[in-house]
Design brief:
This protein has 3 domains: 70 residues, no CATH class; 110 residues, Double Stranded RNA Binding Domain (2-Layer Sandwich); 131 residues, no CATH class. 27% of the residues lie in helices and 17% in strands. The protein contains 10 helices and 13 strands. A hairpin with a 5-residue loop joins strand 12 and strand 13. It is rod-shaped and about 135 Å long.
Length: 365
């Protein structure tokens, strides 16, 4: 039996009247309405006493004549005390299987399958056309083929990949492609125009959030890259008590000193020479070096004259003089600032005071 013959036979069965005798036996009128044929539909098999079934049913156990199709398309009743004409079956999609998303109706795959059985679905087969690999962006393609009892044949395909699937089912690409292929096939079989919910990648396809016209404004991305200050170079220190040796980036003395950096946008000038005094012979004499400790630090000791607070290093002094020259601050003004801020001459500043003094000069306009 060809598909065309099956469709034609099913169309003829729609107009035949059916009477129910008991749970399994029925009478179906002939096409001309002159006689009725006796049909049986049970778990042991189907039977009709028409000539068409007697001739073709021997070779094909699944053959259905138009009288058997008329019974299958009718709604049976439990009350059979009196023979009654049965109403024709009206297949419909149960409202439980219709979901609304953003004002649009979508059919569930379970509802499409239920409706297909109401329309006498006999089989549905799925074939994997493309296996997901790295070369095809992990895309699986399946083809579904559905058949009905009247010989109807419906074919459609479905695809799935991580980009068009919900994150929860992205690991089940082949199964998702199979479900989509069957859903599309059953939509044709049941004549349902609604899109199946399983065909959607996510709800943005429903709401249109991914279109240019309806796209919601996206918040500006925050720049979380930490920006560093311009590269700085350390000031070359003057010779210190250790013979000018530098170890591990420490300048000057072996005491705890503060590393000083200056911006490299202007050349580093050598430290200004300390003011000199005119001797008796008129020759300039170098200003004596500051003592290792100041009087206050010596008095705060334990009586042996040793200071507990480290003094300003040569590197710090060099940095102060460089900054003063860049800021246009004279040596006298440096001393005045030191007396004003620390109440001691600049030469007697401690290491901590010198560090604070350097920051003050760096921040000066």
């Amino acid at each position: 039996m060809t598909a065309q013959e099956a469709v034609k036979r099913n169309e003829k069965s729609q107009w035949l009247k059916v009477w129910q005798v008991d749970d399994t036996w029925f009478y179906v009128e002939s096409e001309d309405g002159k006689i009725a044929y006796k049909c049986c539909i049970s778990d042991q098999g189907d039977f009709c006493n028409c000539g068409d079934f007697a001739q073709k049913g021997k070779n094909d156990p699944h053959f259905k004549c138009k009288h058997l199709l008329a019974v299958m398309n009718s709604v049976p009743r439990n009350e059979v005390s009196e023979a009654q004409i049965l109403e024709k079956r009206r297949p419909r999609l149960d409202e439980r299987f219709v979901k609304q998303v953003d004002g649009k109706d979508f059919a569930l795959y379970a509802g499409l399958l239920d409706l297909a059985h109401q329309k006498n679905l006999t089989s549905i087969e799925v074939e994997l056309l493309q296996y997901p690999t790295k070369e095809n962006d992990h895309t699986a393609i399946c083809r579904a083929t559905g058949k009905t009892v009247n010989g109807g044949l419906f074919i459609d395909v479905g695809d799935a990949n991580p980009n068009n699937c919900n994150s929860k089912v992205a690991r089940h690409i082949i199964r998702m492609a199979s479900t989509r292929a069957k859903a599309r096939c059953l939509r044709d079989l049941t004549n349902i125009g609604m899109t199946a919910l399983e065909e959607l990648g996510d709800f943005s396809e429903v709401t249109g959030a991914d279109t240019m016209d309806n796209r919601a404004p996206q918040p500006a991305k925050k720049d979380n890259i930490k920006k560093f200050a311009p590269k700085q170079a350390p000031v070359a220190p003057a010779a210190n008590n250790n013979g000018g040796k530098q170890e591990n980036g420490d300048y000057g003395s072996d005491q705890n000193t503060v590393a000083v950096v200056v911006q490299t946008d202007s050349p580093v000038l050598p430290p200004a020479e300390a003011p000199t005094n005119q001797g008796a012979a008129g020759k300039p004499e170098k200003t004596p070096k500051a003592p290792a400790v100041n009087e206050q630090a010596a008095k705060s000791g334990n009586g042996n004259g040793k200071a507990k607070i480290p003094m300003m290093s040569e590197a710090q002094k060099s940095a102060i003089y460089n900054l003063s020259r860049r800021r246009g601050v004279s040596v006298e003004e440096l001393d005045n600032l030191a007396m004003k801020n620390f109440n001691i001459p600049m030469e007697n500043l401690t290491s901590a005071d010198a560090s604070t003094f350097i920051k003050t000069l760096q921040q000066a306009a």
